[in-house]
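Contributing new complexes? Match this layout with iron/sulfur cluster.
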Amino acid sequence: MIAALVNRILPFSSVDGPGNRTVFFLQGCNFNCGYCHNPETIHVCNNCGACVSACPTGAIRLVEGKVTYQRSVCCACDACLRACPRDASPKVDVMQPEQALGILSGNLPFIRGITVSGGECTLQRDFVLALFRGAKQMGLGTLLDSNGNYDFEQDEELLSVCDGVMLDVKCADPDAHRTLTEQSNELVLKNLAFLASIGKLEEVRTVVVPGVLPNEDTVRQVCAVLAPYWAAGAPIGYKLIRFRPLGVREGFRSVPVPNDESMEHLRGIALQAGCANVSIL
Ligand code: SF4
Ligand code: SF4
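Output block (do not edit by hand):
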């Protein structure tokens, strides 16, 4: 049986790809970014039970050694997330693709596509594949939001039902990337070139973190790879995201937000490289 851990479903979003889309956020990630603003999506719950007594409404229970969550009585206070010692969340639904497609069919009149995000959604690849297949049969567009730590070149089956990937390129420098995420960026950079070459790169995102990451170097390296595709008319977007210390863990709480001037400077580099669609968030 195929099933995924679903952290959250946004029925309608206009910022996760073109048009109005339903977005599925899956639980679990294979990076551990210091600046993650949803650190509770990183790890999978190990049923330790530490959050049960923190819940004021009884939405979380420990039943035969397993944590259960009842969404209908949750007041969204997030006390459970603050109590969790391992950056996990008990507020997760185990969902089969058929259930997810049932939700989608109710949204059909109002959406033109779906986006699957995370955590890192490729960790639950079989669910994503089944969901995208069903979504395609409904006539919906399919986008995947990924940290890039997945070998897309080896997965033609998934790419055949995926319109495009929204790829995070957090840092081009391998050492700084490892310091930030605890993982190599080898696959990320491979995917940047590969997905662009097959027309499946929807957009690149880079979070700009002043004084911590070599942001300009990353933007220049991304632009060097994508410039030939932009010159050939490929509509690959580049989203430059301002770091904000909201929801982040201790080590990043005092990092400043980048100023307008530095963001515009980076935008200028991408524009000069030929990107027609650079946005600053
Ligand atoms: S957010 Fe967590 S602690 Fe708060 S009511 Fe919901 S399950 Fe309970
Ligand atoms: S969500 Fe965290 S605190 Fe709650 S049971 Fe799971 S691992 Fe323990």
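Reviewers usually confirm one structural detail per submission. For this one: The chain has two domains: 4-38+93-280, 46-83.
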